[in-house]
Structure formats: C-alpha cells, structure tokens
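The material for today's practical consists of a large collection of protein records. Getting from the letters to the tokens is the skill we practise here. To make this concrete, we reproduce a full record directly below:
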Amino acid sequence: MLEQKRVVIGDRSSLKERKKEKKIEVESKKGIGEKKEKTEEKDVIAPIGEAIDNGVTNLNPDIFYSNLVSNYERARKLYGERLLRLITGYDPKSIEINLQLKEFREELKNSIYRNVKRLQEEGVLNKQYGTTAKTARLIASQLLEEELEKLARIAREGIQGKKPGYGEEKDLIMYKPGIPYRSLSSRATIKTTARRMHRAIHIEDLRYKERKEQKGLELVIVLDTSASMKGEKIRNAKKAGIALTHIAINDGNKVGLVLFSSTSRRKIKPTKNEQEIVESIVRIHPMGQTNMQEAIRDSISLFHRRKMSKHIMLITDALPNVGEKPLEQVLRAINTARERGISISIIGIMLNKEGIRTAEIIARNGAGRFYDLRDANKLDIVLIRDYEEHR
C-alpha cells in the first residue's frame, strides 16, 4: 500500500539527505514510483469515495498539483487528508510546511504524476482521470459491508426486518395442522400453559401468530444531491441507500432510484438489479439546487402498473427552491401520486423550522411519515424502519 513520505520540517537539505538513506528511500517509495506492487484496494477506495462525497469527480494531476500550490488549506478541505496521502505519498502536515521549497514542490509534482498513473494502471482511474466502474463497485461493496455490520449489531432490536415474503403478525391463533413452526409464539404459549396450570405444554396450549399475506413492494428512493448535501450528509445517505437496496431486493422487492438537484440527474425504474442501483448511488457528487417537484413527478412515472404496494422515500436537507411557488408544485405532484396509490415518506436531515413545517405537509398529503433527523448517522435505521412499515 502507499505509505506517506516524510520530510524533515524546515530543513532545506532534507530531500538530498533522505535520498542518501537507503532505509528511508525504500519506505518512502513503497507502493509508488518504480515499484510494481499493487496498491491495496482498501487504502484507495475510502479516500476516493470521500472525495466524491465532497464533489470531486476528477483527479487530473495538473489540477491536483495546481490546487495544492495555489491554496493548500482549500485543497486540503476539498480532497481530504486521506486522498492527499494517497495521491502525493506525503503526510499533509509535511506538505503544508515544505510547500514553499522549490525542490520539494518539484518532487511533489513528480510523485503526484507517478501515483495517478499507478491508479490508472490498476483500473481505479480511467484515461480522463475519473473513477471507473470497477472503482464504483469496490466503493459500493465497502459501504455495504460497513452498513451490514452496523445493522447486524442492532438487528436484535427488531430494526433490520423480518423474513422475506413472510408477512406481518396479525392475530394469535390456536394450533392447526400445517402451520409452520416459525409462527409459534413462545410467550403466548407459555402464558396459556401457566394460566391452565399445566405442568407441561399440551398441544392445545400452543399459540401461533397468523400472518397477513404480502403482495410485494416497489420502492423508489428519491435522493437530494444538491450542493448542501456535501460531506457527511451524502456519505450517510449513500450508506443507507445501499443497505436499504440490498435488504429490499433480497426480500424479493424492487427498488428504483431518482437522484436530483436542479434537475433529475439519474432515473432508474424499480428493479431487482442491485448492482445498477448501488453503483449509481456511489457515483453521486453533490451540486446544484433542490428541484423537489420534478423529482417527485419523475419518480411517479417510474412505477410499473402492477398490483403491488408502491412507496417513495424522499431524502433531503432543504426546501424545494426551483421555479415559481415550488411548494404548490410539490403538492400537485403528491396529489398525482396518491391518485395512483403511491405513498410518500420524507426524511429531513437537519431541516430548519420552515423546512420541518413543509416536510410535515408533504408527508401528511403523501400518506407517509415525516422523520425529523438531527443525526445523519441514523439515516440507515430510519430508512429501514420506513421500509418495514410500508412493505
């Protein structure tokens, strides 16, 4: 993997001296330059994924170097320290201290070119310095793994969900031949046995949970990708969207997607193609305004005309702000959705007071729920709760 180079701070002779020391040379060049060992995926995927979340879609070495030299602090915030280490091979603090040294800047530029070329050779970046489909798949896989580990820890609280296609609890019933053992209610059975003062459980004591039949769900995730969603908001939205897609599709349901900002940037009809959905989510980079009304209209058009439950999850951190009287346009779109049997829930991330009032109106008219989320890290739990309620 790439290891950072270190320069003795404030010492103009440090570059020449470092080259004379074989041990330091080997360590500083490990994973870059002429070495041909493959960069470890885990050390590449995370920083590139974080950069995309901050709106970085291209790693052109000329632009990267120019941004560092012209305004280091702005570049550090844009790229993140992990990506700086990956692309430059240097510790960010060393870059900041030594950036005024001519010989350091020359070697920094060469190092950036070497590392970008290496990432191209490994299929992480394409010829135009953008991310490849391979990179999108790796980022999606990493985010999904992180989310499933997190959800596994809270599954015992009943948040993650029920068995696919099995239905929800309806009423307790007495035993009948052919009822699957999974429906057995241990608590109700024990209570019945105790009430009857039986010393052992008799067959007439058995109590089962009757399940209502499920007809399947078509779900469309409508995700705000406007500029205000940069950073942690979009990162958590990606993780939650990927986890929800995985769970819903593995439950036998279909998931669609609308990514919107000033316009709808990506639209996918409800499908069981998990890879198509998650790779589209991974490639999101925030930009533009919040054209909510167009996003809702587009999501309505994606549903198939089958007798299935149809539900939209709208995730946003802002009010609709495109066009004249945007809220009125949103409510007209919601009325169309309700006429077609489509419910709409809205998940508001750190909305202001006006945003909360607007979201409440949207949820009420959309026959769904409004979730006032103050902590974006809990977005995954909220999405899965809403999914369980509407499946």
Summary: The radius of gyration is 27 Å. The CA atoms of residues 87 and 112 lie 5 Å apart. DSSP finds 16 helices and eight strands in the chain. The longest strand covers residues 217-224.
